[in-house]
């Protein structure tokens, strides 16, 4: 019963939030396009439930030539890779809003452990020991 209720909550909440925030999403997309060349959305493979890979959607906050599968913290001088609009988007956590589409697709939940990239092997091992991959990853974290 609980998994079905959680799925219904996630799905309904995501659709409502997307509808209500659609003007903001369009405004952010326009700002990204005007600020730097490249796509509006950033797509990256992440590790999901049962260690299955999936493609996560985020608003692009970095220049297109930035390495794709490297955590921001591991980049040399990460600030130089972030766009002007990207700094604002990250500060407000608006870059995470496209993940509502991942929720609709059933790949994520609103609440759950943040999904990580496959390159973070040590963290994946630790999460496996804890059983983290038995639940859907989430937008908000635990």
Number of DSSP strand runs: 2
Q: Distance N terminus to C terminus?
A: 21 Å
The number of helices is 4
**What is the overall silhouette?**
flat
Round the mean pLDDT to the nearest integer and report it: 90
Assembly category = single chain
The parts where pLDDT drops under 50 for at least 5 residues are none
The SS-based structural class is mainly alpha
Main beta-sheet strand count, sense and barrel state? 2 strands, antiparallel
Q: What is the percent of helical residues?
A: 40-55%
Please list the strands of the largest sheet in the order they lie side by side. Answer: 1-2
Radius of gyration: 16 Å
Element-by-element helix/strand order: HEEHHH
Residue share in β-strands: 5-15%
Write a structural description.
The model has no long low-confidence stretch (mean pLDDT 90). The chain has helices at residues 2-35, 84-91, 99-104, 121-130; strands spanning 41-47, 53-59. The chain is 41% helix and 10% strand. It has 4 helices and 2 strands; from the N terminus they run H-E-E-H-H-H. The protein has a two-stranded antiparallel ribbon with strand order 1-2. It has 142 residues and is mainly alpha-helical. The chain is flat, with a radius of gyration of 16 Å.
Q: Gist?
A:
It contains four helices and two strands, in the order αββααα. By secondary structure, it is mainly alpha-helical.
Write the layout of secondary structure elements.
Layout lengths: L1 H34 L5 E7 L5 E7 L24 H8 L7 H6 L16 H10 L12
Antiparallel strand pairs: 1-2
Helix pairs in contact: 1-2
């Amino acid at each position: 019963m609980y998994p079905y209720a959680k799925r219904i909550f996630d799905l309904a909440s995501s659709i409502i939030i997307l509808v209500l925030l659609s003007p903001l999403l369009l405004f952010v997309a326009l700002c990204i396009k005007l600020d730097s060349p490249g796509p509006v959305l950033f797509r990256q493979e992440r590790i999901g439930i049962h260690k299955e890979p999936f493609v996560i959607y985020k608003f692009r906050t970095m220049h297109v030539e930035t390495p794709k599968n490297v955590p921001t913290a591991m980049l040399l001088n990460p600030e130089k890779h972030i766009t002007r609009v990207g700094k604002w988007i990250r500060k407000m956590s608006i870059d995470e809003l496209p993940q509502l589409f991942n929720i609709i697709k059933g790949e994520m939940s609103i609440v759950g452990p943040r999904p990580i990239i496959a390159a973070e092997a040590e963290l994946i091992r630790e999460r496996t020991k804890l059983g983290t991959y038995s639940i859907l990853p989430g937008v908000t974290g635990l």
